[in-house]
Write a structure and sequence with these properties.
The chain contains six helices and 18 strands. The protein has 258 residues and is α+β, with helices and mostly antiparallel strands.
């Protein structure tokens, strides 16, 4: 097992994940129990051979349909442990379909499908739980997306997590155009319904945020900053039918699950 900080240029930044490189098949019950034991935002299980690895992601309380930072961590772990050559792409079979990652100049690029949010009326309780006024609200297959006026509003958010957990959604992204130099847009992500009060850096959320801001800013290449306490940078390239999300990763510790 490797503890990896994903979307991080240095230890103790970005989003932590445990990557378990399985020596034999394990049950979902075992995976969920270990994820609860480790109590990280994601515990990732990798099994198989270099052609295609099976990949599953768990929060401390639930299996996840998609986890970008866990996928970055898994690819990093495979390359670092020499289970896969750094020159070879990491290909994964996942609950959300096939995913792949490649190493690019010290960054890990995920090739993902866009998950575009369409405009919708906010559900009862969402904006009250967030404590904000929305410029725009959207919904995709996993999450709500709430656009607010400015970066300062995103930074100052103090949502009522118990009230937010009552909203029927995996999570909520709150986003705004950036005012910081060198950044295009900012966000924060809350998912108390699946056991994550605030996620540090959320790759899967950027499958929706990147297309949104590409359209808003009329550019296909963006730099995003997720404004959690740990913080993290995501590079995004948006094409017609793909989103390439890139981040860095650092191994913090290694261990053996007994």
């Amino acid at each position: 097992m490797l503890h990896v900080d994903a979307f991080a240029e240095a230890p103790f930044r970005g989003n932590p994940a445990a990557v378990c490189l399985l020596d034999r098949p394990r049950s979902a019950a075992f995976m969920q129990a270990l994820a609860a034991e480790l109590n990280l935002p994601a515990t990732v299980f990798v099994e198989g051979a270099p052609k295609t690895f099976a990949l599953r992601w768990f929060s401390p309380t639930a299996e996840l349909a998609l986890c970008g930072h866990g996928t970055v961590a898994a690819a990093h772990a495979l390359w670092e442990t020499a289970r896969l050559s750094p020159s070879a792409p990491a290909r994964f079979a996942t609950p959300s379909g096939p995913l792949s990652a490649t190493a690019r100049d010290g960054w890990i690029a995920l090739d993902m499908a866009p998950d575009v949010a369409t405009a919708t009326a906010p559900p009862v309780g969402l904006l009250d739980a967030l404590g904000v006024k929305a410029r725009w609200v959207g919904r995709n297959r996993l999450d709500y997306v709430v656009e607010v006026d400015d970066e300062a509003t995103v930074r100052a958010l103090q949502p009522d997590l118990a009230a937010l957990a009552a909203v029927d959604t995996r999570g909520v992204s709150v986003t705004a155009r950036a005012s910081s130099d060198g950044v295009d847009f900012v966000s924060r992500f809350f998912a108390p319904r699946v056991g994550i009060s605030e996620d540090a850096v959320t790759g899967s959320a950027h499958c929706s945020l990147a297309p949104l801001w590409a359209a808003r800013l009329r550019t296909s290449r963006l730099i995003a900053h997720q404004l959690s306490a740990r913080g993290g940078v995501v590079r995004a390239e948006v094409a017609a039918d793909r989103v390439i999300l890139s981040g860095q990763a650092v191994t913090v510790l290694r261990g053996e699950v007994l």
